[in-house]
Structures are given as C-alpha cells and as structure tokens.
Amino acid sequence: LLNGVSIKLNPRCFISAITNFEKKSSFPENLKVLFRTFTLCEPDYGILFETSLRSKGVHHAKNLARKVVACLGLLKNVLSFQQHYCFSLRKLMNVLTVFEEKRTQFLDENNEVLLCQSLRIVFKSSLVEFDDKTFEDILIDVFQASAYKSKEKKIQKTDDIIKNVCDNMNLHLNKYFVQKVCELYEILKHRPGVLLVGDSFTG
C-alpha cells in the first residue's frame, strides 16, 4: 500500500546496491529496513566470459575464457600497483565489447588473435611505461603465438597524417609518441570518457 493505493509487487524484482565502493554512501537505513539483505559471492569471471562468448557464437569459448581470465589474474598480481589500474568485471566486459567490434570487422581472423588485440586496446593505454614490457610478456605467456600475430599494424595513412600534423606544428616525432596517439584513438572509439595523466607530450 503506497499513499492509499494498492500496488501489486513482482516478487522477482530486487534492488542491488554496492555499499563498499569508494566515494559511495551506504544504503539509507529507512530504505534498508524495507528489504531483505543478502550477500553475493565474488562472480566467477570464467563462467561469465565463457557464457558471453557462447552467446555470440564463438567456438572454443571455454578455452578462450580460461586464457583471458588467467591473463587478467596475472596482470592484477604482477603489474605494479597504480591507483588508476582496474581489473574488475567491468573491465573484462570492456574487452568483450571491443572483441565483438573487432570480430565484425575482421571476419576471417582467428578469435584468439582478436582477443589479444582487444586486451591491448583496453589495458595498454593505461599502463605506466615500466609495466608495458611486463604486459607484453604476460600476453605471450598466456596466448603464445597469437600474441605476436595480434600486434596491430598501423595503417600507413594514419602514420602519414600524424607526421604531417607534427611537421606543421614544429613538433619532434618519435615512435613512442605515435604509439600513444594510436592508443588514444583506439580507446576513444570504445570509452565515453578518457583522462590523460601527465605533462603535455610526455605520453
């Protein structure tokens, strides 16, 4: 009964709230008493990723999901601690989104190679310089030959455009700067908001 009106509730409806997230206030007590509280265990990333891959018609979904989750675990444990690093389920779903887009663009490409490319696009742009090689080593350990094949060849036209812009602005062009420009371009296609950290032209 709400304001004198009888409302039929659907018993399958529920409310979820993340109360231990940084900078988030706890669930109000006057609302909390109206609901039965329960705790969820940590999600199984492997099953969730495998199910998502199967729903998209990907073959060998279980093996691919196992490799991606193993890669995520190694990145979390081996890379240096940085406040902006994130290895959550949301990040894993970002990998899936990029993979789906790449799969529609390159229909004949191997799924494992496309997953490596997706991991690079999602994670590499946020890595500090000394974690870059470690990231590549982890990809090679987990995906082996596919990690080498997945290194995207930058389109020559894109390189020429970057070179022309830098020449017009009297800027010194180097390989690392071109790499960061390409990473920024890729990540802007998949993320609504991007934060650049550091001084100008430092990469």
* Tally of DSSP β-strands: 0
CA-based shape: extended
Tally of contiguous helical segments: 9
Give the helix proportion (percent range).
40-55%
**N- to C-terminal separation?**
59 Å
Give your account of this protein's structure.
With 203 residues, this protein is mainly alpha-helical. The chain has 9 helices and no strands. It has helices spanning 29-32, 45-55, 61-78, 89-105, 111-123, 132-143, 145-149, 156-168, 175-188. The N and C termini lie far apart (59 Å). The mean pLDDT is 77.
Salient structural properties:
53% helix, extended
Short description:
The protein has about 200 residues and is an all-alpha fold.
Secondary structure elements and their pairing?
Elements: H1 29-32, H2 45-55, H3 61-78, H4 89-105, H5 111-123, H6 132-143, H7 145-149, H8 156-168, H9 175-188
Helix pairs in contact: 2-3, 2-4, 3-6, 4-5
